Amino acid sequence: MYGLSAADEDIQARARAFADELIPFEVEAELAGGLPDDVTAVHKKRALELGVFATNLPRELGGGGCTTLQQVLVQEQVGRVTNALGWVAATPPSWFPPVATQDQLARYLLPTIRGEREECYAITEEGAGSDVDAIEATAYPDGDAWVLNGVKWHVTSFNTADYCFFQAKKINHSERVVGPTGGDHLLFLVDLPSPGVSVVRTPAYAHTISHHHPIVAFEDVRVPAANLVGAEGDGMLYSREWFRFERLMVAARCTGAAERLCAEMSSFAGGRVAGGVPIAAHGLVAGMLADSVTELFAARSLLYETARAIDRDPADVKTAHAQCSMAKLYCSEMAGRVADRAVQVFGGRGYMRENVAERFFRELRVERIWEGTSEIQRMIIARQLTSRGVSALA
Ligand SMILES: Cc1cc2nc3c(=O)[nH]c(=O)nc-3n(C[C@H](O)[C@H](O)[C@H](O)COP(=O)(O)OP(=O)(O)OC[C@H]3O[C@@H](n4cnc5c(N)ncnc54)[C@H](O)[C@@H]3O)c2cc1C
User: Model-level pTM?
Assistant: First the structure.
């Protein structure tokens, strides 16, 4: 099905085997708030061995050199696993190689591709989420260093990462106040820990994973001039490129989650007897199964075609931007509907944390929020539809 090549099927099978190895650890992770570090380290080593790590980076840098479709096939399998256990099959920033200096490659990117370092992203602020341009974090040059200030929200993996990308606006030294400046967007590499970087607090979120999302303060943090990423003013460009990639990977993981849910709920519905027959024989339950697998097929077809279009014509960034938004919008909303039905099919069992449907029901909710909310995806899609016409998008 889907016209996959032998190479596609090979990497898909490796990723699927990897996901199947992780699934037995889900309930332990759910009840303990994550797995012990030594167990996670073993899983990460396995991801490296199986070639499902850094699939999005070029081979000459030590990455997998995979096509977009193959990256999607791997992340789809990662998505079958709850509690973010599959995140060890990481995708380091693929936008970085063309703009990284030799020094940045050596200190940050290459060790990340080898699995020795881990990054996190400090972009969102209390007053700036969907509207990234509203950030108030600042950066000013001081001798051969930059001085960074700002408070960042939801910094995913801050507790496991050892460096972060920090987005700020440029100010002059004399304006040493954090406030709206309208300046150029700048992106920096900040080692963790660094003097001046501190956790304000670590809120609890709906999912139970070992990666935290703390609010982090950056107070007069000095980074070498060599830690500025790319050119001044380009900070937003890289974030946009990353959003495009990550939206497609969100779509892939949501599709994998829906596949797992369809498999688990249909197996349960075939065995669970109520009123003398398997519940799958009750029309109202059968309808939930049928709707779920139909939406899964539609989502996967959209997802694979979006990936293939990028592989065919990587230069058509506009179309890719809209279609990645379409894939993220549809796949994340589809997975939410499937998880809701799965809880219903499992009945009381579906409300237990040891049940996969309950965990996905909570975990999938954020897929409609991070990397651009569903509303933002709709705005992007509608803007391109009205300016370029339907044939450009579908
Ligand atoms: C678990 C988690 C992890 C995260 N990890 C990171 C991370 O690692 N790094 C990071 O920088 N950020 C991270 N984020 C932040 C995430 O990207 C933002 O939460 C998201 O972009 C939405 O921003 P917001 O929360 O400020 O909501 P807002 O932007 O305040 O939006 C609130 C509501 O208004 C709607 N809205 C806003 N603007 C518009 C518009 N123009 N048109 C229509 N509707 C609109 C939104 O769709 C939403 O429904 C994370 C968030 C979560 C929940």
Answer: 0.97
